[in-house]
Design a protein that fits this description.
The protein has 312 residues and is mainly α. It has one domain. The chain has twelve helices and no strands.
Length: 312
Amino acid sequence: MKKSTPRVRAWQRDAATGAKLLVLLLAFAWGFNWIAAAVALREVPPWSLRFVGTGIGALALLIAVPLSGRKLAVSGAQFKHIAIAGFFNVAFFNICSAFAQLNGATSRVVIITYSMPIWTTALSCLFLGEQLNRVRIVALTLCIAGLGILVEPLFAAGLPLGVFLALGSAFGWTIATVYVKWAKLNVDPLTNAAWQLTFGTALIAIGMFVFDGYPRVWPIGIEYAIAILFIGLFGVGLAHFLWWTIIARLPATTAALGSLLVPVIGVVGSSVILGERPTLTDIVGFALIFAAAACVLLQKSEKATLRAEMPE
């Protein structure tokens, strides 16, 4: 095997560091997306909201691909993998998360959904051969402890539907993330995100026409319209592009654990904007989750897996 040169290793470190910075940007895009969805769901049915939101995101990326000099064309084999990921990561995830928010507090739904790193870590070890180093073990332990503290009071009162819908979101996201890594999808992240959103939107459209009849997004107040636009452009379009860029550069486990910053932002936003007040137990759980994310984001940069060419 050809040894990497110091220059190549430096490039790999820079690429991994850049991916971690993208994780921070993603955290804000997805964190505030939960808040925007909670606001929009006050006026718009779940199927219609997800159809319009993912539709805006898909359209934005379909336009962005050729404008950025990339190609929309993918092979049949590649599109099969994209379609499978789109079903789980776009259609299944978005519908489960919308109905979960209708059946529980947004802050709780965000936290339960972000049990995703636990499942991603387990599946990555089983199917991708990724190793659990000491930093990942510490991060995973903190993640499990934090989520356990937050979820336990919910089960004390029974088996709320919102918990299972939020877990469904987590499983959908997990399966898509690990599947794309396993399939070794050789598609530009922007093109990948554009086609996933397009396929997922088509599936959501079927449910929307069955349950809503047509997109019930008008008439609505200006604040709800702004929330939907934010969801489409930033929470869906930009965020999906960032996520698949990160997945292309970092191991699935590292990317998943790093994304634990999203619920921290989502929960803080729920407190400030939606008026949801965290208890002392919540604060302890959030602190553990934040520590888990910090372990991943502040560790020594890992080898990148970018498909871009090395600098000359």
